[in-house]
Specification:
This protein has one domain. The chain is globular, with a radius of gyration of 22 Å. It has 18 helices and two strands. The longest helix is centred in the middle third of the chain and has 33 residues. It is mainly α. Helix 16 runs parallel beside helix 18. Helix content is 73%, strand content 1%. A two-stranded antiparallel sheet has the order 1-2.
Length: 478
């Protein structure tokens, strides 16, 4: 049976209801928000864990492999960000169509999103196979560049399936069916873990019937990339199988091939491309950040990469809340109840603030131990405590940005976040990083302090956009 939008919140929380002394701190609809956020957290965690596992295991090989996988991972994801949010935008259309109980629109926009995902996936695979052309621009050591290309080439084999996964996640999450992507992500991630251990370090195999089976040489970086690509493929395959389940056929008819519809595709691109560029600009900023840090040597680059991994891992609850906020916003906007969308948005902001503050305390208390999860290199560990404290501060500011972006995207207001990121990244973050690292010969600690200041400003401006209420007037179906 289809999951329907929650009943009107005003019945449970009338405007003039008396409030307790601590009411201002209470998160209304906590259970409803977390019911959406929790499976999504595990879904996104499973995807990030693929890269995190690569990093943690390669850190046991050597710092060169760690640096190459780190640079390769951020280059791959920065390129993917050209289209990731375009594939994900299916969720915005599905959530609003679901809010008004338009099953036909749900099926139609899901299929058009899949067409876009396949096309963009092949583009990303082509770019990955030819990434050796741009790697010299990073000015990293030659041995780092060579291993980085190996990682990118084998990771790019799964580009099409990555984009299909995002489009189908939008179908499930927009309908509040958030457990299916979680299950698919767990399956793919477990397979990636097994393959990583097997392929990175190699195995002598076992003897059966006079023959040796499953023996592989140690592949290092190449093995990590292959394991991740296979995990992504299995994740996408699981989502496809569930999307074709009999219970969904009656409502959405996804099992019937639909022709490309230019008007629907144009709507997806019109709303999705600004969201895609927002993500790409964000990732491009950190790509430039990584390149600048990499010019100071392999040790600062490895330390910075571990910091990014810590943030990627710790952001997963915020990603879950961001997705929940986008789905709830889309559902209520689709039901023509924008004030309810704003109310849920405020509660999600409040819940995100509590999480970020708690996480900051934990990271600061464990600052001397966090880096040891990823490496035993004493030079890298020497930078660990300072970078962990900065990560604790940074993740709060970026959390506000993420939540604001999720709410605006759920409403289809994607142009403002894109323009904001464009101005702040190229007018502030990138020039400031260049000044600190290149012009002033600074260190990785100072570079991360500068990044925190820039994301503080971005978070403030994203909150002001939410407060303005202009996002309530956006119309995505044209």
């Amino acid at each position: 049976m289809e999951n329907r939008p929650a009943p009107p919140m005003r019945k449970n929380n009338p405007p003039n209801a008396p409030r307790s002394r601590w009411g201002i701190f209470r998160v209304a609809h906590f259970g409803e928000i977390m019911a959406l956020a929790s499976p999504t957290i595990l879904t996104m965690l499973s995807q990030t864990m693929m890269w995190t596992v690569d990093t943690a295991l390669l850190g046991r090989v050597n710092s060169l492999s760690l640096a190459a996988a780190g640079l390769g991972g951020i280059l791959t994801w920065a390129t993917y960000s050209l289209f990731n949010n375009l594939s994900r935008i299916t969720g915005t259309f599905v959530s609003q169509a679901h809010g008004r109980q338009d099953h036909e629109a749900v099926g139609r926009y899901t299929w058009q999103g899949i067409y876009i995902a396949v096309c963009t996936g092949f583009i990303l695979q082509f770019l990955g196979f030819h990434s050796y052309l741009i790697l010299p621009l990073t000015q990293n050591p030659t041995d780092v560049q060579e291993l980085t290309y190996v990682y990118i080439k084998w990771r790019s084999l799964s580009a099409v399936f990555t984009q299909i996964s995002f489009a189908l996640m939008g179908f499930f999450q927009g309908r509040r069916d958030v457990k299916i992507p979680m299950y698919a992500g767990i399956i793919g991630n477990l397979l990636n873990l097994i393959l990583d251990v097997w392929l990175i370090f190699g195995w002598s195999g076992f003897e059966l019937g006079g023959q040796v089976w499953l023996a592989v040489p140690a592949m290092g970086v190449k093995g990590a990339a292959i394991g991740t690509s296979v995990g992504v493929f299995v994740n996408a395959l699981a989502l496809i199988i569930w999307a074709l389940a009999p219970r969904l056929r009656r409502q959405y008819r996804l099992h019937k091939l639909r022709r490309p519809e230019p008007r629907a595709i144009a709507n997806l691109i019109r709303v999705g491309m600004p969201a895609a560029w927002e993500g790409f600009i964000d990732m491009l900023g950190f790509l430039m950040f990584t390149i600048f840090v990499g010019t100071t040597g392999a040790v600062p680059l490895a330390a910075s990469q571990i910091t990014i991994q810590i943030l990627s891992f710790s952001f997963m609850p915020l990603w879950g809340l961001t997705t929940a906020a986008g789905v709830l916003t889309g559902n209520w906007i689709g039901a023509h109840r924008p004030d309810d969308a704003e109310h849920y948005g405020r509660q999600t902001f409040k819940l995100g603030a509590y999480y970020s503050l708690g996480l900051a305390v934990v990271l600061i208390l464990l600052r001397d131990h966090v880096f040891r999860i990823f490496t035993n290199d004493p030079e890298v560990l020497a930078l660990g405590a300072g970078l962990t404290v900065i990560a604790a501060i940074f993740q709060y500011f970026d959390g506000v940005r993420m939540l604001g972006s999720g709410i605006l995207q759920g409403a289809g207001d994607t142009r403002y976040p894109m323009l904001l990121m464009l101005v702040m990244m190229w007018g502030g973050f990138i020039p400031l990083t260049w000044y600190i690292i290149v012009a002033r010969d600074g260190n990785v600690i100072n570079a991360w302090i500068g990044a925190s200041v820039c994301y503080l400003l971005i978070g403030i401006l994203m909150w002001r956009r939410f407060e303005s209420g202009k996002w309530k007037q956006v119309e995505i179906f044209q």
